Amino acid sequence: IELIDADRRHFRLADALEEFGESEKGAVVTYVLIDCPPSLSLLTVNALAAAQAVIIPLQCEFFALEGLSQIMRTIETVRTRINPALDLQGVVLTMHDRRNNLTNQVEEDVRGHFGDKVYRTVIPRNVRISEAPSHGKPALLYDLKCPGSQAYIQLASEVIQRERARPQAA
Ligand SMILES: Nc1ncnc2c1ncn2[C@@H]1O[C@H](COP(=O)(O)OP(=O)(O)OP(=O)(O)O)[C@@H](O)[C@H]1O
Ligand SMILES: [Mg+2]
Predict the structure, then answer these.
(1) With bands split at pLDDT 50, 70 and 90, how would you rate the model's confidence at 59?
(2) Residues 9 and 59 in one domain
(3) What is the residue range of 33's domain?
(4) pLDDT of residue 170 exceeding 50
């Protein structure tokens, strides 16, 4: 709410990150990952204004598709008005359950629409992932071998590959 009347309200995060890069003498910051809230607010717009690329996690549920078209419209608006360099890195399907018809239908729709933008890796619905926070641990430290953690490791390598292929990437 305080941001509403602020100068450069869409660029507060971008400005802060720039300063951070300059003030941390000796520290080399290569990548900054910004985790966003699910709603499209001024905070989300600040993240999109500061970012070079976006990763969209998508739950394999019907209403997620509506959210996806909404975020795509927002990205387009941010591109035209605020940050022309903003790239869609990819869409990651999560809470995936092969036995569920809806999951397969959502996957087919999203891949049909977004093609290669959808990562090959999908994150399965996995109880070990949901247990991890209650032990105060990230999933990879809680259970490295579980299918969910293994999928996240595979996703990370796909993300790194795409970053290397992006022309403006470091
Ligand atoms: N692959 C998965 N399998 C099972 N449960 C999962 C999985 N991924 C996430 N969860 C459960 O869903 C909860 C929310 O996940 P997460 O915090 O990643 O979602 P989020 O969309 O970032 O939520 P928020 O909007 O609160 O930031 C987790 O605490 C976990 O219990
Ligand atoms: Mg979150």
Answers:
(1) very high
(2) no
(3) 1-51
(4) no
User: Which ligand 1 atom lies nearest to the CA of residue 95?
Assistant: 1
The enclosing domain of 113 has a CATH number of 3.40.50.300
Atom of ligand 1 nearest to the CA of 123: 1
State the distance from the centre of ligand 2 to the C-alpha of 164, rounded, in angstroms.
Answer: 25
Phi, psi of 153 (to 5 degrees): -65, -40
Q: How far is the CA of 21 from the centre of ligand 2 (A)?
A: 25
Clarify whether residues 38 and 57 are in a common domain. Answer: no
Q: Are residues 88 and 146 in the same domain?
A: yes
Whole-number Å distance, alpha carbon 18 to ligand 1 midpoint, is: 30
Tell me which residue of 47, 52, 27, 28 sits closest to 36, measured CA to CA: 47
Distance 80 CA to ligand 2 centre (A): 27
Say if residue 89 is in the same domain as residue 153.
yes
Using one digit for the tens of pLDDT, what is the confidence trace for 108-129?
Answer: 999 999 999 999 999 999 999 9
Instruction: Give the H or E element holding residue 94.
Output: strand 87-94
Residue closest by Cα to atom 6 of ligand 1: 130
Whether residues 38 and 22 share a domain: the answer is: yes
At residue 21, the pLDDT reads 65
Are residues 44 and 67 in contact, defined by beta-carbon separation less than 8 angstroms?
no
Dump pLDDT digits (tens) for 21-58: 666 566 677 789 999 987 888 999 999 999 999 999 99
Please tell me the distance from the alpha carbon of residue 121 to that of residue 110, in angstroms, as a whole number.
Answer: 14
Residue 90 Cβ inside 6 Å of ligand 1? The answer reads no
